[in-house]
Write a structure and sequence with these properties.
The protein is of the alpha/beta class. Helix content is 33%, strand content 14%. It has a domain of 241 residues: Amidase signature (AS) enzymes, CATH 3.90.1300. The strands form 2 sheets. It has an 11-stranded mixed β-sheet with strand order 1-3-2-6-8-7-12-13-11-9-10, sandwiched between helices. A two-stranded antiparallel sheet has the order 4-5.
Length: 470
């Protein structure tokens, strides 16, 4: 029997005795070691994961929704018994003794944590590379980035190591690597999954979300982890249940190629046109719309992000600044210069953006855009290369995700829709406030038209020059 890939299939095989949790976890651990040249993991927990798997195999409960399913957590997220660095030297060698709520819920559902995945320092970047852990590579082409900041998680899923992995999304950090690495990535609506790992407490841009092998797996992750918790004052008190996801029926879809201001690569536009055609064939109404936004949206998000980073992590600058990512330091320094009055004016943009979308959603069920304006960038590029205006006056950005962190109650899903020039392309689906089920249903319809990309196989042993980590 070939090894099942999705979380649903793994749990079902274990429940009916066709597979043991120990076998599933051992295979995942071996694959994590095999893909080490891609630098996807900071911790691979052989002892802890296999012990948990044996407990599952020896237990009597066989109906847990994630029975024996291996998963990975991001190094930004503290987990019990694991080195947690948040990608920085400034955090030392902390080993927490408690799990966040979402990990507790996954474990209660039968899932088994096999390790921690790489992140840029404090999850600040769309490229997964840090002074502490080095560069993470895209399995579709190791000379390209998998995106960030949940890049290690995306690689772990894209290579078939685990069917689900946790990411954090403050400006696209789940959806960007999902799109660039060819997997599913969901930013749930704000508070759907309690977030209890931020030094200043929950905020209005930060989310936990899954990177997954399929839309069903993303929905399963969400169904298990959602719900209120006292640790997150913004957690939703009564979120809509997520059960079996049926494809959307005759949805009304607004399509924006560029949000009004992005330079979108021709190959991405071509894939978007293919998606629109396939969805119309499947019974959807798909109509182009003019959002009419400008790069002020991105500039506002970047300023708010700099403020959040500085407020959370500036204590490490005096001692560790020379060992931090220089782009991160510059972003934090810019955040420190923002006044309270300026910050409040920046926050006011959220309402203007929401009024635009609220009007749109009176006529349409969802909005679709490219997740990223280009395919996976080269390893020698940085965020700074994608913060410019091109000669035509359009914003030459990498991702099209951060506007929807300013609109944090709106769920946003990235689903792979094939490749361009051998690299994955993602479609972003944005729903009305708290309408997570709507974006998952449309994601399921898209997945029927564009089946998930197969896992990238191979050991990557021929990669030269990947960094040795300290």
């Amino acid at each position: 029997m070939s090894r099942p890939r999705t979380a649903t299939a793994i749990a079902r095989a274990i429940a009916c005795g066709k597979l043991t949790a120990t076998e599933a976890v051992h295979t995942a651990l071996e694959r994590a070691e095999e893909i080490s040249p891609l630098n996807a993991f900071t911790v691979i927990d052989w002892d802890g994961a296999l012990a948990a798997a044996r407990n599952v195999d020896e237990g009597k409960c066989r109906d847990a929704p994630l029975l024996g399913v291996p998963f990975a957590a991001k190094d930004f997220t503290p987990t019990a018994g694991h080195l947690t660095t948040r990608g920085s030297w400034s955090t030392g060698d902390a080993v927490p003794d408690t799990d966040p709520v979402y990990v507790q819920r996954l474990k209660a559902a039968g899932a088994i944590l096999i390790g921690k995945t790489t992140t840029p320092e404090f999850a600040y970047s769309s490229f997964t590379q840090s002074p502490r852990w080095g560069v993470t590579r895209n399995p579709h082409d190791p000379e390209h980035s998998p995106g960030g900041s949940s890049g290690g998680a995306a690689v772990a899923v894209a290579t078939g190591c685990v069917p689900i992995a946790e990411g954090t999304d403050m400006g696209g950090s789940v959806r960007i690597p999902a799109a660039l690495s060819g997997v599913v990535g969901l930013k749930p609506s704000l508070g759907r999954i309690p977030i209890d790992i931020l030094p200043l407490g929950p905020d209005m841009i930060s989310h936990f979300g899954p990177l997954a092998a399929s839309v069903d797996d993303a929905a399963l992750f969400l169904s298990v982890t959602q719900g209120p918790h006292p640790s997150d004052i913004l957690s939703q008190p009564d979120p809509q249940p997520i059960d079996t996801i049926e494809p959307a029926h005759a949805p009304r879809i607004a399509l924006s190629e560029d949000l009004g201001y992005y330079h979108v690569a021709p190959e991405i536009r071509a894939r978007l046109a293919d998606v629109a055609s396939e969805l119309r064939t499947a019974g959807a109404t798909v109509e182009p719309v003019d959002i009419g936004w400008t790069r002020v949206v991105n500039d506002t998000w970047l300023k708010l992000w700099g403020v959040a980073l500085a407020a959370s992590w500036e204590d490490g600058l005096s001692k560790y600044g020379n060992r931090m990512d220089p782009e991160l330091v510059a972003l934090m320094e810019d955040g420190r210069r923002c006044s309270g009055v300026e910050l409040r004016r920046l926050e006011a943009l959220r309402n203007r953006l929401w009024l635009d979308l609220a009007t749109l959603f009176t006529r349409y069920d969802v909005l679709i855009t490219p997740t990223c304006a280009v395919t996976a960038p080269r390893l020698d590029e940085t965020d700074a290369d994608y913060e410019r205006t091109d000669l035509s006056g359009r914003f030459a950005g990498l991702d099209m995700t951060c506007p929807f962190n300013l609109l944090s109650p709106c769920p946003a899903l990235s689903v792979p829709v094939g490749t361009a020039n051998g690299l994955p392309v993602g479609l972003q689906i944005i729903g009305p406030r708290f309408a997570d089920l709507d974006v998952l249903r449309l994601g399921k319809l898209v997945e029927q038209c564009f089946p998930p990309l197969p896992p990238v196989t191979g050991s990557f042993a021929d990669i030269q020059g990947h960094e040795n980590r300290s």
